Amino acid sequence: MVHALCASLIGPGRFQPVETYLAATELAGARNAEPDWQRLDYADLVRVESERSGSFGHAVGAQLAALRTRYAGRGAADAVQVIAEAMGDDTVRRDGEAVVWSSPSALSEFVSKPVGEAVSSQHATWLACLLWLEEAGGALQFARQDDAIACRVGEHAASFSTDRLAVWIERFSELA
């Protein structure tokens, strides 16, 4: 769903934001939330996932539009400042040339929360920041810092192998 959402907002064939999002999600220790099969059948699950993904996608699209306007003329070199300003709350702060998440779970909300739970506007802003950064030609690199996760400007990959999404799906399937 993250891949589909990104492709719908910035076009197909641009995998860097997906790669960055999933790498941060994995580093945060996210696990796929298993559906409650006592309460949901397959049709219910698909309906709830579809509604949640649509709402999240709409929120990301609105945040991306706001970022494009607010940071017009800014580039990948400004990524740390732009992300820190856009996220702007107690769980995310700028520390020199890094953005630090004191609550790593904020990086993985869409993947790790149950399908019945709405995704926060802050998390929509996070994915919108990654899409903005892709359009600016940049990328981020993540690292653990004690109980926090920090990201810095990193190398933008020129391409990804065609099976890269399958690799991520397999990884998260193993973590479930």
Task: Give the secondary structure arrangement, pairings included.
Elements: H1 2-10, H2 16-27, H3 42-70, H4 79-87, E1 92-95, E2 98-101, H5 109-112, H6 121-135, E3 139-145, E4 148-154, H7 164-175
Antiparallel strand pairs: 1-2, 2-4, 3-4
Helix pairs in contact: 2-6, 3-6, 4-6
Describe this entry's structure for a reader:
The chain is of the alpha+beta class. The chain has one domain (2-175). It is 51% helix and 12% strand. A four-stranded antiparallel sheet has the order 1-2-4-3, with helices on one face. A hairpin with a 2-residue loop joins strand 3 and strand 4. Helix 3 (42-70) crosses helix 6 and helix 4 runs antiparallel to helix 6. The chain starts with a helix and ends with a helix. The mean pLDDT is 91.
Mean pLDDT: 91
- Level of helix content? 40-55%
H-E order: HHHHEEHHEEH
Uncertain parts? none
Number of domains: 1
Oligomer: single chain
DSSP strand count: 4
Tell me the strand percentage band.
5-15%
Cα-atom radius of gyration: 16 Å
Distance between the termini: 16 Å
Task: Specify the biggest β-sheet.
Answer: 4 strands, antiparallel
Please state how the strands of the largest beta sheet are arranged side by side: 1-2-4-3
Number of discrete helical segments: 7
| 3D shape | globular
Structural class: alpha+beta
